């Protein structure tokens, strides 16, 4: 595509706009009261047209927040017509079906006025550690059990904070200072975005961003169509089985590529769950479309237009399209696995461009203790942790890295400051990455104990303990995850359970799967893996057919004999 002079100017404005939304996100991060936002980056930020279409998003953020928030702003405009917004207004909601999928996510929307009219909206989302109700976990029977639900409501009206809204919120959560502080950090981020957008309009002599947004949408749609048209048209099928809570969840996906569009329809055993792993459609759509966008049109900006090239479908009322009032607090257990299912379809359409399966769902450590009747302060803490990602085309998987959520691990020092716990161990889990031409990323081993000797509760919600990440193109599966007590007492990967004061909880997230024939991996790379502690000498021989000397040098004759001999493991195993 060639640029006209006007297009080049708009391209410069586009770059400026992306810096505006990134400053919006950074303001949110720097003013946040919660480590989940400040340290882990569990948030989203973006700018929208007056009719609710997302123009641009901040790079900082998670797909589950960004792509679901892309639809959320239209709900705000439906609830509060454009004529009823005033300068200085701020509205919020945490409704799972009008926001980003569960009550702990707070969405805040702020209009930007210029010349007496709304020219844009800024929206931001962050995860609140506590929102009342039963607290962390999936044990609630419906959404009313899970916490306070705030419909779309103005919390700031023409510049004046509504203390009644804040009072209701504070009265229903366990950590009122942190929750209201996080709310105000969302307000501050949107305010910064609005100021920077108005400064941009002054600099470029703009009355609004209509022409710029249409330029962005047009080029994004054309870019997506060009990318999709390079994919062989057809219908592709895939299946994925997850552990589930009370029963396995067997899902299927049918992907249709035609006419410059991609359509993904989910099926299988999608009966709704009686527990909180149901997924509102906004979250299903967010992560499924993200799976497509990771492979198709990666250089095309993520906005209303590019997302419109991908259609996601799931049966209404199913576990992937939960309806009010289903419990949805742990919607990430299934939602964050959807990119792997989408990748299985794309692996047939565009071989060589798709990673193997990884740990997928976050392996967060959720700990709590009630203050009631104890004479000590209670706490409710969330520590982000991850397993390994699947092996990539030409590259190994990433160790202990959150994909697809993209959040960062919270530093141990911050975690220990936010709750009376002690990290006794945190290290990579050797041999957990699936063998392959490219190796799966490693999981990790995490040991946490009570610092004051008192027991605490853990809300365990861990996927891939029975169904391991699957290898691709002859690569081996990753190691499944597990959770246990050092004492050997029974402990389930699903459910709220007590950790005795003198015991240690051991959490071992899964490793990512391998990609390609392990016996085709360069022996020198296997040697480096052993030296770095990623692979044991035993696994080097059994999984990769590489024999090492005592000095960790490749024994070339022994390796050649092993790789070509009758004991060679079939790549299809």
Question: In a nutshell, what does this entry contain?
Answer:
This protein has helices spanning 5-31, 35-38, 63-79, 163-171, 176-204, 210-229, 281-295, 304-307, 332-335, 338-349, 412-418, 523-531, 537-544, 556-564, and strands at residues 43-48, 54-57, 90-93, 105-114, 117-127, 153-157, 160-161, 234-242, 249-258, 261-268, 310-313, 365-369, 379-383, 421-428, 444-450, 456-461, 482-485, 494-499, 504-508. By secondary structure, it is an alpha+beta fold. The mean pLDDT is 95.
Protein architecture, described:
The chain is globular. It folds into 4 domains: 5-208, Beta-Lactamase, CATH 3.30.450; 228-353, no CATH class; 355-513, no CATH class; 517-573, no CATH class. Strand 8 and strand 9 form a beta hairpin. The chain has helices spanning 5-31, 35-38, 63-79, 163-171, 176-204, 210-229, 281-295, 304-307, 332-335, 338-349, 412-418, 523-531, 537-544, 556-564; strands at residues 43-48, 54-57, 90-93, 105-114, 117-127, 153-157, 160-161, 234-242, 249-258, 261-268, 310-313, 365-369, 379-383, 421-428, 444-450, 456-461, 482-485, 494-499, 504-508. The mean pLDDT is 95. With 573 residues, it is of the alpha+beta class. The strands form 4 sheets. Strands 2-1-5-4-3-6-7 form a 7-stranded antiparallel beta sheet, sandwiched between helices. Strands 8-9-10-11 form a 4-stranded mixed beta sheet. The protein contains 14 helices and 19 strands. This is Hydantoinase B/oxoprolinase family protein.
């Amino acid at each position: 595509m060639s640029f006209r002079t006007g297009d080049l100017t708009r391209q410069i404005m586009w770059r400026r706009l992306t810096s505006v939304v990134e400053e919006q996100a950074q303001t949110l991060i720097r003013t946040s009261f919660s480590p989940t936002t400040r340290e882990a980056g569990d948030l989203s930020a973006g700018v929208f047209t007056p009719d609710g279409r997302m123009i641009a998003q901040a790079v900082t953020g998670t797909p589950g927040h960004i792509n679901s928030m892309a639809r959320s702003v239209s709900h705000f405009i439906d609830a509060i017509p454009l004529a009823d917004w005033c300068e200085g207004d701020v509205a919020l909601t945490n409704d799972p079906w009008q926001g980003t999928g569960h009550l702990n996510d707070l969405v805040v929307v702020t209009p930007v006025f210029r010349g007496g009219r709304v020219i844009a909206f800024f929206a931001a989302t962050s995860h609140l550690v506590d929102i009342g109700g039963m607290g962390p976990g999936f044990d609630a029977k419906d959404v009313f059990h899970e916490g306070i639900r705030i419909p779309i409501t103005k919390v700031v009206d023409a510049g004046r904070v509504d203390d009644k809204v804040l009072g209701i919120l504070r009265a229903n959560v366990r950590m009122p200072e942190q929750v209201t502080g996080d709310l105000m950090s969302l307000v501050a981020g949107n305010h910064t975005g609005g100021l920077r957008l108005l400064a941009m309009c002054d600099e470029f002599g703009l009355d609004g961003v209509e022409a710029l947004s249409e330029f962005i949408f047009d080029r994004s749609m054309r870019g997506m169509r060009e990318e999709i048209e390079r994919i062989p048209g057809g219908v592709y099928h895939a299946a994925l089985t997850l552990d589930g809570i009370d029963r396995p969840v067997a899902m299927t996906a049918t992907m249709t590529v035609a006419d410059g569009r991609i359509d993904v329809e989910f099926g299988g055993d999608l009966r709704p769950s009686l527990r909180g792993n149901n997924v509102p459609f906004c979250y299903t759509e967010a992560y499924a479309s993200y799976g497509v966008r990771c492979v198709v049109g990666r250089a095309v900006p993520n906005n209303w237009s590019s997302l419109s090239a991908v259609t996601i479908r799931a049966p209404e009322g199913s576990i992937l399209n939960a309806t009010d009032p289903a419990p949805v607090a742990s919607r990430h257990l299934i939602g964050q696995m959807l990119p792997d299912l989408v990748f299985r379809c794309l692996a047939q359409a565009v071989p060589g461009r798709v990673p193997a399966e990884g740990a997928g769902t976050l392996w967060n450590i959720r700990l709590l203790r009630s203050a009631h009747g104890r004479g000590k302060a209670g706490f409710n803490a969330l520590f982000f942790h991850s397993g390994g990602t699947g092996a990539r085309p030409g590259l190994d998987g990433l160790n202990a890295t959150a994909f697809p959520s993209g959040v960062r691990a919270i530093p141990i020092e911050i975690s220990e400051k936010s709750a009376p716990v002690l990290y006794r161990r945190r290290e990579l889990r050797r041999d957990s990455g699936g063998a392959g031409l490219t190796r799966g990323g490693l999981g990790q081993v995490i040991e946490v104990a009570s610092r004051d000797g008192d027991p605490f509760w853990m809300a365990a919600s861990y996927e891939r303990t029975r169904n391991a990440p699957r290898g691709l193109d002859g690569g081996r599966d990753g190691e499944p995850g597990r959770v246990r007590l050092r004492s050997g007492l029974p402990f389930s990967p699903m459910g709220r359970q007590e950790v005795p004061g003198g015991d240690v909880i051991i959490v071992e997230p899964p490793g990512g799967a391998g990609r390609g024939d392990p016996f085709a991996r360069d022996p020198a790379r296997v040697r480096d893996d052993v030296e770095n502690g990623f692979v044991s000498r035993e696994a080097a021989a059994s999984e990769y057919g590489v024999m090492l000397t005592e000095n960790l040098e490749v024994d070339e004759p022994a390796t050649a004999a092993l790789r070509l001999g009758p004991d060679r493991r079939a790549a299809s195993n």
